[in-house]
Amino acid sequence: FIQNLIAEIQSSRINTSEELEVFRLKYLSKKGLIAQLFEDFKNVSGEKKKELGKPLNELKKLAEKIFDDAKNSIAAASLAENKGEDYTRPAGLLPVGSRHPVSQMIEEIVEIFSRIGFSVMDGPEIEDDWHNFTALNFPPEHPARDMQDTFFVTKNPDIALRTHTSNVQVRAMESMKPPIRILAPGRVYRNEAISARSHCFFHQIEGLYIDKKVSFADLKQTLLYFTESFFGKSNIRMRPSYFPFTEPSAEVDVYWGLNNEVDYRITKGTGWLEILGCGMVDPNVLKACGIDPEVYSGFAFGIGIERIAMNRYQIPDIRMLSENDMRFLKQF
Ligand code: PHE
């Protein structure tokens, strides 16, 4: 019987994967013929065992070899048919993208301020006049309200693309009770001529701190903490400035160069880099947002992100940050 089976197996033709499976089920599966024979083998007498053991093992080996050979030749044939493409191979790894330099700067700055209790707040990019201008103490005839500087969304002069992230200051003070410590990163829009140095949209991070007895010294120390965390040991200078919503107001430059102790990231080039505008929140703004200026005071600042990213990565043209050129983006 075994010899007959061996002959039968040797003459079997396996050309397709379906035939291969039929073969496997018939001979090699758990309930197949060979498994059955091994099962029966347990019950035969000692004499017979000697006689049958060897051919039974040969039968099994033969069946396995025929199965493996057929399997390989079927795989080879399908490979040839698929013009060398092996559709069974594991897929390659997907290319992994990288973080945009602007996002990287935002993440880093948010992390630094979160260590001293600031949390992130979001606000709309399409904003009404109240939150972008009026509550921030912009006089009615202020030039920033002009078509020249602001993008209006419709014919309705009340709705525009926000010109700064300071709109989120207003929304924070309207919706929260002091102490308030928020950071608002986001995109802003200005109707400006596009050049290597300026674009009609860019990013800012707004900071706002309102509590009892917040002073200008607190503002300065907070900013120094930020520049030292971000740029390494650094010098800052505050230049007097003007914003309708802060009084007094200042612009802050960080010194990056010539100083050997300054972090490696900013040692290329020399001079002062302007990074933000800031000031003590004007009492008129507190009042407009429902906070009593007799009880509370606070400071605000607005950091320009592109400027910092361009400095950090030595990017010569602001337009590179929004052109989505893969050759540029791959470097980050
Ligand atoms: N909103 C100002 C700007 O866009 C920056 C600023 C924010 C100034 C907060 C003072 C306080 O230039």
UniProtKB/TrEMBL annotation:
The coiled-coil segments of this chain are none
Single Gene Ontology BP term? phenylalanyl-tRNA aminoacylation
Q: What is its EC number?
A: 6.1.1.20
Location(s) in or outside the cell: Cytoplasm
Task: Say which enzyme class the record assigns.
Answer: ligase
PROSITE patterns for the chain? AA_TRNA_LIGASE_II (PS50862)
Q: Which domain of life is it from?
A: Bacteria
| Full protein name | Phenylalanine--tRNA ligase alpha subunit
Primary gene name: pheS
